[in-house]
């Protein structure tokens, strides 16, 4: 069902907003129809360009959250209060409006369904976006590769795709989801809020001796800390792939 991403010269394409969904109070899922889209790999991203009537333009990069299929892609956008692009995408852009997209971009931070290695995914906040594409693609391709997702957020209200993740983990024995709350845990939670640490990564990620593929995405400080812990736990640095922002 999926088309492989076509390498070559990146081209700006006009994309129409087909659907929009609130993921949290400060994030929006945007589904675009992109005529001529060449296909993508889970983990890749696109550049989004907005141009004002006076010709001023600005662009930002956003990870693709959707399964590679046809000419439709989904982006998960976190609103940045003083940003130039994300407030418009989250609060203003109406269904039917058009933006420019360029991509897919990136070939390192990608998961291929042909891989047979177990996978550990570690996300911080909106860093779940490209990892969501991996989770969805695994299911769409019928892969039996076991996935473990460790997702760090501030509060329960900050979880992207909360209902979908619960459903997938409940229905798929090959997907384990662990959410870590750093500021406020859900009512009745057996564990108090706290930062993602060595114990959680060691317990809920695949052990280094299993030689898993590891993908870490989130704010720069988060990614650097998690990567250092994983290497200290014995993981091969060449198998720990990172994507950071901020």
UniProtKB/TrEMBL annotation:
Entry-linked InterPro entries: Cbr1-like_FAD-bd_dom, FAD-bd_FR_type, Flavoprot_Pyr_Nucl_cyt_Rdtase, FNR_nucleotide-bd, MRET, OxRdtase_FAD/NAD-bd, Riboflavin_synthase-like_b-brl
TM ranges: none
Domain FAD-binding FR-type: start-end pairs: 10-111
GO MF annotation terms: 2 iron, 2 sulfur cluster binding; oxidoreductase activity
Entry superkingdom: Bacteria
Keywords of this entry: 2Fe-2S, Iron, Iron-sulfur, Metal-binding
Iron keyword on record: yes
Cofactor(s) in the UniProt record: FAD
Entry-linked PANTHER family: NADH OXIDOREDUCTASE HCR (PTHR47354), PROTEIN RFBI (PTHR47354:SF5)
Listed name of the protein: Ferredoxin-NADP reductase
Taxonomic classification: Bacteria, Bacillati, Actinomycetota, Actinomycetes, Pseudonocardiales
């Amino acid at each position: 069902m999926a088309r492989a991403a076509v390498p070559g010269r990146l081209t700006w394409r006009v994309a129409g907003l087909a659907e929009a969904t609130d993921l949290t109070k400060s994030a929006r899922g945007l589904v675009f129809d992109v005529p001529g889209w060449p296909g993508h790999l889970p983990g890749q991203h696109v550049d989004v360009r907005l141009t004002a009537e006076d010709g001023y333009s600005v662009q930002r990069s956003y990870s693709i959250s959707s399964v590679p299929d046809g000419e439709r892609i989904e982006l998960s956008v976190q609103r940045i209060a003083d940003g130039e692009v994300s407030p418009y995408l989250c609060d203003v852009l109406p269904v039917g409006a058009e933006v420019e997209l360029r991509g897919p971009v990136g070939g390192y931070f990608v998961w291929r369904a042909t891989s047979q290695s177990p996978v550990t995914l570690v996300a911080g906040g909106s860093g779940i976006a490209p990892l969501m594409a991996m989770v969805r693609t695994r299911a769409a391709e019928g892969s039996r590769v076991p996935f473990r997702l460790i997702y760090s957020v501030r509060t329960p209200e900050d979880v992207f795709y909360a209902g979908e993740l619960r459903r997938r983990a409940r229905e798929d024995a090959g997907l384990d989801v662990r959410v870590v709350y750093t500021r406020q845990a859900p009512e009745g939670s057996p564990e108090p809020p706290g930062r993602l640490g060595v114990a959680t990564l060691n317990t809920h990620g695949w052990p280094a001796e299993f030689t898993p593929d590891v993908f870490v995405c989130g704010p720069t400080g988060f990614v650097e800390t998690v990567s250092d812990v994983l290497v200290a736990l014995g993981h091969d640095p060449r198998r720990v792939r990172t994507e950071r922002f901020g």
